[in-house]
Amino acid sequence: MRTSQSGRDRVLDRIRAATATIARDGADGRSAYVDLPREYINRGNLSHAAKVALLIERLREYNAEVSECTPSTLTDAIHHKLAASNRRRFVAPPGLPSAWMVPGFDWKIDDELSYEQIEGVDGVVTGSFCAVADSGTIALHHSPIEGRRVLTLLPDWHLCIVYTSQVVETLPEYFARVEKLPTLVTWISGPSATADIEMTRIKGVHGPRHLNVILVQD
Amino acid sequence: MSKIAEDPVLDPTIALPFPAAALPALRDPQLRKNVAHAIDVIQEKRGKLVVEKSDWQALRVSAAAIRTHALENLGSYLEQFEARCTAAGGHVHWASDAGEARQLILEILRKEGADEVIKIKTMTSAEIQLNPFLEAAGLSVYETDLAEIILQLGHQEPSHIVVPALHINRSQVREIFAQSMNRPDLPDDPQALTAAAREYLRRKFLQVPAAISGANFLIAETGGVVIVESEGNGRMCLTLPRTLITLAGIEKVLPCFNDLEVMLQVLARSATGERMNPYTSLWSGVTPGDGPQNFHVVLLDNGRSSILEKAKERQTLRCIRCGACMNACPVYRQTGGHAYGSVYPGPIGAILTPQLMQMRHAQSLPYASSLCGACYDVCPVKINIPEILIDLRAQVVDQERRSLGKFFDPLYLGLRIAALLFSRARLFHLAQKFGRIAAGLFTKRDGWIHSMPSVGGKWTQTRDLRGLPNQTFREWWQTREADRRRGR
Asked: Which of the 8 DSSP states describes residue A128?
């Protein structure tokens, strides 16, 4: 690949010339980063129950379907969701607990399935990394229990299992939970949608048209 | 189908001045209705969400500070981004202008043997006029964002940076889809139209070998790229093809991953009036077994570095392209986007376009504003747009008055005469006397001037002018002093 060395130099030289006169503290202006104002709300003040209730409310506003269960009733809850969806063929990321692959359905485990194979299933079941109540957002970091990105993209129906211990109130609380800087993240807030025609929100364009969430009280 | 506009031109080098370019839109009631409806909906939703957010002003302050800091240290952060992205398996290219960027992208696609390419909505690619270039080189280019499909199939130009087809209503969309997808039976409800777009693109997503995206943010700390979207077409383009090319303006960089905790809170609320957009994707370089294995970033300057030097103008580059300023703008509301003669319309376009053109084109845009300040109020990164508009107006005036062609222009001639009169007291008083006589010829009995000939008519066309008083303050003062001395 031709890397335009001259293009790089030209652009960087112009930037350097234009920013050379900016007064900086010390030799490296970047040290000022730590002092940038951050007066916004970092930690929320809701109780655990209120936080979970807010997440449910916000997810439902996006037309996601939400149900609650306990760890002991989780497999029943999954079974109930799958049966109610009238779908048969499901795909599971490689790290999905085998108990979650409830009997009575056709399961495919994603060990390098082709896109065509994934396109051919009716739905997908995954875990999650974290959920943000304030904005109704689920964060997928694409670990083995969440699956690679295509898995939660091509199937039209997505069931995402979220433990209530994974729920935070504010977006900054999610960022505080991230220990290792991720290389892949998908933040999902409801099923795919568009408002491109007369600002009318239409659920379901290219991504999954159905987002289901089971909140497990733990 | 009602005509949408008389072939709008979005190339600032050849576009008409704003007042002339606005005329077709002002004469098209359907277009104005479509635009007003769309921005009313977004404005209302945004307003509710901003009120709900008790720390909104603190978020704006932080967002502005982070963006300012990134721009002040842009060279350093871009190099860090380049190093981290390269270490993660990506290829980083630098393009100093539109031509270089187009050529780089074409070379990458040729090398990959791609003759078809799918695209996520990117204003930057529209800025460099990428699609016509690639098509002329024999490639098939497929837009995948619903609004962009409408524009591409209907041979239309974008009129908004977030909702590019907001000037087109559902029945117009139906016409476009029915014709170009050969589906005459298509109804005009948005649900059916959206489903038609899904079917139209499904095979493309799975078959086309290469994709082109823009970038909402580049993360220096991780070499990551962030795309904020709604439909999932973005995720399709970022995940399914073998090759991905991201075209990003150099100003898009953020120092750290955690800065997203601010930017993602303000962006969706400002752009579409949602607490969060349905999908936000972040990826760094190449991940084995997940997504494109061949990833390129093209960093585009194209005039941006020339805006960095002055602190006031530098604010322009903080922009995160949310479109809140155009939704709030009383001028945009009347004209829609095409009048701005650029892919960047509205208040941000009025300051960005002439600066990207290094003040050689689009000089009418700084005047396309009432300076009401609504854009500044809503801007999530606190760009003081009115302040920059005034500064750019001064630059335009400086340019014009030095140009030979404007030497005898009545405005500049008048201003030069005024400068002469105002600097000499006797001339000034003489001018006042003659002015009173001259103005008296046009002053009606109610004390107002309703119409004047020649250049003066430009003022009285839309406003009345108060006639000059019989006595100036100085004259009154002098008679008063004289009367006092006489002991009255």
From this structure: -
Q: Is B442 within 8 Å of chain A by CB?
A: no
Closest CA to B68 of A138, A22, A11: A22
SS3 state at B252:
helix
| Cross-chain residue pair B194–A208, CB shorter than 8 Å | no
Closest A-chain CA to B233: A206
Q: What is the pLDDT of residue B486?
A: 83
- State the Cα angle at A65 between A63 and A67, rounded to 5°: 150
| Chain B partners within 8 Å of A196 (Cβ) | 145-147, 150, 163, 165
Looking at the domain assignment, is residue B313 inside a domain?
Answer: no
Of B198, B232, B283, the CB nearest to A153: B232
A68 pLDDT above the threshold of 50: yes
pLDDT for res B1:
38
C-alpha torsion B187→B191→B197→B201, nearest 10: -140
Condensed to tens digits (0 to 9), the pLDDT of residues B286-334 reads 999 999 999 999 999 999 999 999 999 999 999 999 999 999 999 999 9
Residue B158 pLDDT: 94
Does the residue B417 lie in any domain?
Answer: yes
Burial (CB count within 10 angstroms: exposed 0-12, middle 13-18, buried 19+), residue A79: middle
- The number of distinct structural domains making up chain B is 2
Interface of B with A in 57-86 (CB under 8 A): 58-59, 61-62, 65-66, 69, 71-79
What's the CATH number where B160 sits?
3.40.50.10420
- % of chain B surpassing 70 pLDDT: 99
Domains of chain A: 48-216 (3.40.50.10420)
B240 touching chain A per CB within 8 A: yes
B418 and B283 share one domain? no
Indicate the residue type of B251.
E
Last residue of a domain, one of B306, B322, B351: B306
Task: Say whether B231 and A200 touch across the interface (CB within 8 A).
Answer: no
**Of the residues B275, B306, B337, which one is the last residue of a structural domain?**
B306
Domain of B113, in residue numbers: 18-306
Mean pLDDT (chain B) is: 94
- The predicted model scores a pTM of 0.92
Using the beta-carbon criterion (under 8 Å), do B309 and A21 form an inter-chain contact? yes
For residue B422, the one-letter residue type is F
Which pLDDT value is given to residue B459?
A: 83
Reported ipTM = 0.96
Residue of A nearest to B34 (CA): A198
What six digits make up the tokens of B277? 């957009």
Q: Each residue of A129-179: pLDDT tens digit? A: 999 999 999 999 999 999 999 999 999 999 999 999 999 999 999 999 999
Average pLDDT rounded to a whole number, residues A14-41: 87
Per-residue pLDDT band for B487 (boundaries 50, 70, 90) equals confident
Residue written as tokens 């460099």? B128
pLDDT of residue A26: 55
Instruction: Read off the pLDDT band of B453 (50, 70, 90).
Output: confident
The answer to whether the Cβ–Cβ distance between B278 and A175 falls below 8 Å is no
Nearest to B301 among A11, A30, A132 (CB): A11
What is the signed CA dihedral for B349, B350, B353, B354, rounded to 10 degrees? -170
Question: Which amino acid is residue B166, in one-letter code?
Answer: L
- Is residue B10 included in any domain, yes or no? no
How many angstroms away from the CA of B424 is the closest CA of chain A?
Answer: 41
Contact list, A190 vs chain B (CB under 8 Å): 278
Confidence band (pLDDT; 50, 70, 90) for B117? very high
Q: Which of residues 377-416 of B touch A (CB under 8 A)?
A: none
Asked whether residue B2 carries a pLDDT value surpassing 50, the answer given is: no
* Whether residue B68 is found in the same domain as residue B208: yes
* Mutation target among A199, A200, A203, A210 for the B interface, most CBs of B within 10 A: A199
Please tell me the distance in Å from B92's CA to the nearest CA on chain A. Answer: 8
Return the residue of B nearest to A118 by Cα. B206
Whether B323 and B70 have beta carbons less than 8 Å apart is answered as no
